[in-house]
Amino acid sequence: MKDIKKRIAFNKFWDYAFWTAGFFSTLVGLALLFTLMADLFMDGYPRLSYKFLTSFPSRFPEEAGILSAWVGTFLLMIVTALSAIPLGIAAGIYLEEYAKKNWLTDIIEINIANLAGVPSIIYGLLALGLFVYFFKFGESVLTGGLALALLILPMVIIATREAIRAIPNSIREASYALGSTKWQTVWWHIIPYSTGGILTGIIIGLSRAIGETAPIITVGALTFIAFLPSSPVSPEFPFVSFKWLLDPFTVMPIQIFNWVSRPQPEFHVNAAAAGIVLMAMTLLMNAVAIYIRHKYRKRIKW
Hints:
Mean pLDDT: 86
Helix content: over 70%
Largest sheet: none
CATH class of the largest domain: Mainly Alpha
């Protein structure tokens, strides 16, 4: 009996020790993150203004803005999301629910896991050879968006598979017992219940994509651009234009890098202000995804 009590006390001690170590590790990480964000905010806040958001880059730091950069980032994220999310979710559903478990699917799973750890510059080189030289898309918004879609595609597939795998088999069996087909079970039960996990993977993937620089530079994003891509709205029927997909572009990370590399302190202040805007865009994008995830979970709960 005494040995059991000693063992329980010993386990409680180590449990408390690991809890303490984890708590302080988290606290240190949050403190460093808060310090960096506070420093960035104090440096860049004086430069934030409506003019800064609506002006093009300039040789004069007091006149420079990020209009072309944030518009390019926004359009790039649209192409990336529309390319990677449907394809990644469909691939995850097929591999988890429809594909036979054999040596071929094992090879596919191993390669998907390996692709998630490939450096981003490799995806840039792949996009350069495939989309720029082979498909002749040029150094355009479409090329940049597809390059980032390739980058986050393995993350979306893995997140989708893990979310589906977490659904209990009893839900599938109950659906089949009521006469549902495979697709009806997936559409009405598997996908709704796994939406939270899938959206978490999408959030992580898009958060990585919005800050990437290497693949975008590789496919020819401009470091200085004083015009916007073509408008997606056309005055003629069908009132929608896709010409902007083939226009040149720049993005926020490249604009920040361009300003940081200059010796003038005023450009460094501009870079800090652009960093604040980039963080705000990332947080807004994540907030939308989290809101959608919450709505799905609330609907399922009811």
